[in-house]
Amino acid sequence: MKLSQLLRYFAVVLLALGVAAGCASQQQAAEDPKAVAAQAIADAKAAYKEAVALGAAWRDTGELIKKAEKAFDEGDYATATKLANQAREQSETAINQWYLEQAKAMVAKAKGYTLTPEQSALLADAEAAIKANEGKRAYELAKQLMAALAAAEMRYTVATGDSLWKISGKSAVYGNPYQWPLIYKKNASQIKDADLIYPKQVLGIDKNPSSADVSAAVKHAKTRGAWAVGPVEASDKAYLGMGR
């Protein structure tokens, strides 16, 4: 064997031995009871901190961590690891439950809206995540859905001859003139009298009103009385105060 080949051979052998030694030292560190306990406590503290931030922490989790730290200081690393893991699992359960409850509330609220196909798909995904007990994923999907509902707004510029009744009846708006109170309430800051709007006013229109809001609007429109420019009707004021 040539000298260059021999040197390369020894270099490969030394490299292999070094890698093996490194793996062995890493494995030894991973199996070191003290290191394992220290990591378990750190993980428990991180999970507990997140649970506390959400207001979801269990009452005895903090005490478990303290007991784990005490066992660690006394050199009882097995007990420290067991207690820390228990504390971490409690926090993770509490965190997951918090996200699940938030997701369920948003999903229930979203079901009261008229949804687009895309929004319906998001709702189905959120419900599937809830069923699978995937709290954080369900929460993110439900949050995305609610953001989409909140952003579903169009702008309408008032033209000469327009009224809230006419605007609401347009197919591009609600296709139902009796839903005009929705526009009135949405733009209450600039519409002082529901019977009087002006050309070039730019109105915001919620394209995803909840079924409850639609019902309240239609009920008000049908019981309010005749259109008449002048003092704001008491029933209009009462309607604007609903849900506030």
Explained architecture:
The protein is mainly alpha-helical. Among the domains are: 106-150, no CATH class; 153-241, Roll (Membrane-bound Lytic Murein Transglycosylase D, Chain A). It has helices spanning 3-31, 33-54, 61-73, 77-110, 117-131, 135-151, 164-169, 180-186, 211-223, 234-241; strands spanning 153-157, 202-206. A two-stranded antiparallel ribbon has the order 1-2. Helix 3 (61-73) packs antiparallel against helix 4 and helix 5 (117-131) runs antiparallel to helix 6. The model is unreliable at 10-15 and 19-26 (pLDDT under 50).
The low-confidence parts are 10-15, 19-26
Binned strand content: under 5%
Structural class: mainly alpha
Q: Total number of β-strand segments?
A: 2
- Across the major sheet, the strand order is 1-2
What top-tier CATH class of the domain at 153-241 fits best? Alpha Beta
**Overall form:** elongated
H and E string: HHHHHHEHHEHH
How would you summarize this macromolecular structure in one to three sentences?
This protein has 244 residues and is mostly helical.
